[in-house]
Amino acid sequence: MNSIIDPLEPDTTQSKRERQKEAKRLALTDAALAVFSRVGFAAAKIEDVAEEAGVSKGTVYLYFESKEQLFEEMVKAKMSPMLSHMAGAIEASSGSATDRLLAQMRFFYSRVLNCDRRQIMRLIMAEGPNFPHLAEFYHANILSRGQAMIEAIIQDGVESGEFRQMQGHGLMQNIAAGALVAAIWKTVFDRFQPLDLDAYFETHIDLILNGLKAAPTEN
Amino acid sequence: MNSIIDPLEPDTTQSKRERQKEAKRLALTDAALAVFSRVGFAAAKIEDVAEEAGVSKGTVYLYFESKEQLFEEMVKAKMSPMLSHMAGAIEASSGSATDRLLAQMRFFYSRVLNCDRRQIMRLIMAEGPNFPHLAEFYHANILSRGQAMIEAIIQDGVESGEFRQMQGHGLMQNIAAGALVAAIWKTVFDRFQPLDLDAYFETHIDLILNGLKAAPTEN
DNA sequence: TCATACTAACTGACTGGTCAGTCATTTATT
DNA sequence: AATAAATGACTGACCAGTCAGTTAGTATGA
């Protein structure tokens, strides 16, 4: 229970209080994601976030300066796993370009679209204009990296003869677009026309890979 | 000035009052689009809409029952041109499937993405969960029709040998996705990384048409 | 053609409810 | 005992929606 038991364990140098504080911070960002997803930023009540996290309203303000800051911190916290994955993925380069592109897309579908993280994408689009900080952070840390990663893979594919040469303006956006639309559809229109994510994923990669593929008998 | 001058003119049977009322209604929906686009539904003030339309706050409530209704009516009013176009487009069927698909996409880019109407798409995505009525209307009137139109074109293309057969789940969403993402990018990330809509359009159709194209030497 | 009465359209000060953020007090930990 | 963490009643700003009062347009009669 105290730090004497295992003084070398990297994260157990924390006191009980520090661990509790960290757990509460996590509970708060989880609750914030749930509440903001449900009703959007403006209509979300701090009191509801507090209740969902099992604390009182005042406590929220011990962890976050303001509603705005809570929102921004929540997005950053929820997206950091994506960041570290992307950082690693740009380096790793085993397999064909096709396989690597597929692996990235599969990762994105399973770790973002198929869980509550997809709500964050909708929130960024919805609230982006009101949170220039956040839009900039998201662009600099997620979109730019995603773009670099995809463009590097495409470039390799062109050199290996798997893909044809395309002029690149908006290439990343067009390739990722299907995934984004899936996130939106699931959160807005699914009740009227349900979307089967697995089948959708197949259509998406089929269309994109065929779209990128070098023509076998061109010229 | 009065109706005796030209009693047969179809739209001049209206009194001066009626014409003014119609003009004011239009001014109000225009102002509402501008204000809602700028700050989102919740943060928008009715007083700002009123000021932008050149009337006082009370007047807004002579034309619309509530803030919600103003928002929904605005979306419907701004989208009705799309509706009539789509209704006609499903019938008209000259040219190859490729040409028809291209024509539809070109129309969408020029009449929706390249003007302030693209803000509506972002608003639907942002506010959709809070406006089930509106999401349903949008799905039933815009998305379903768009889907029917695109699938009909694809089907014709398959029969004529232009396109390959694809299993259709989410085909419309994947084809239209690039356009949606362009709308979002323009309104959220353009300031950090500007998007040239014309070049983007070229990439989009290039990727989609190549993705749909039947392989020349298959089987 | 003007004067008058009538009515539709508009106005903006006001009300009532909501909620972000505060802080004196209480509770838990060391 | 000392200190850190948590609480929730409270405050002040904000704003959707109202309505008594005002203005502009229209119809009628002299």
Could you describe the 3D structure shown?
2 copies of one chain form a homodimer. Chain A is mainly alpha-helical and 219 residues long. The first copy, chain A, has 9 helices and no strands. The first copy, chain A, has helices spanning 16-39, 46-53, 57-63, 67-91, 97-113, 118-127, 132-160, 171-188, 197-212. The radius of gyration of chain A is 21 Å and the shape is elongated. Residues 1-12 of chain A have low confidence and may be disordered. Chains A and B meet through helix 6, helix 7, helix 8 and helix 9 of A and helix 6, helix 7, helix 8 and helix 9 of B. Chain A binds a DNA duplex (30 and 30 nucleotides) through helix 1 and helix 3.
Write a concise keyword list for the protein shown above.
elongated; 9 helices; DNA-binding; mainly alpha; homodimer; 219 residues
Short description:
The structure is a homodimer of 219-residue chains. Chain A is mostly helical. The first copy, chain A, is built from nine helices and no strands.
Largest interface: A-B, 63 and 62 residues
Low-pLDDT regions of chain A = 1-12
Q: What's the mean pLDDT score of chain A?
A: 88
N- to C-terminal distance of chain A:
72 Å
Overall shape of chain A: it is elongated
Q: Structural class from helices and strands of chain A?
A: mainly alpha
| Strand residue percentage of chain A | under 5%
Count of alpha and pi helical runs of chain A: 9
* Number of distinct beta strands of chain A: 0
The amount of helix of chain A comes to over 70%
Radius of gyration of chain A: 21 Å
N-to-C series of helices and strands of chain A: HHHHHHHHH
Largest sheet of chain A: none
Oligomeric state, counting identical vs distinct chains: homodimer
